[in-house]
Amino acid sequence: MSTVSKLFPEANAILLENTINELVLAFNVKRQNLLGHYGVSELEVDIIEFLQNHEQKKMKEVGEHFNIKLSTLTSTIDKLEKLKLVKRKNSKDDRRVIYIKPTAKGGSLLADVNSPARSIADSMAKEMNKSEFDVVQKSVTRMLELAKN
What we know:
CATH topology: Arc Repressor Mutant, subunit A
Number of helices: 7
Helix content: over 70%
CATH superfamily: Winged helix-like DNA-binding domain superfamily/Winged helix DNA-binding domain
Number of domains: 1
Distance between the termini: 30 Å
Largest sheet: 3 strands, antiparallel
Strand content: 5-15%
Order of helices and strands: HHHEHHEEHH
């Protein structure tokens, strides 16, 4: 244990804080670059992810879930449809009802946006032995638990 650590035990906590901040920043930079590449915003990705998790939803349900006015959602879906990330489909029972679902390209966007974390995890799994990796996994899980409290 270094002299600084003995005098200031929180120095290790400060080092961890700085490391976490750098990690979050690195993830955010990669994510923003990917969003820029696809030409979408965080909200638009959230909408695609919501649709991916629920197969297809009515426009009204999406608007209610995200607390977005239907007029705003319509322009957002227009953009996503133009980018071929989502697809609209009219209900067979009621033509006024419009369903939205993600396209394969929308699914690819989600995979790409989530890839930085997956890439880091894969690299760590390859570079570390099982016990080292298990320690990191348990530590990160515990940090997440503490952060949620």
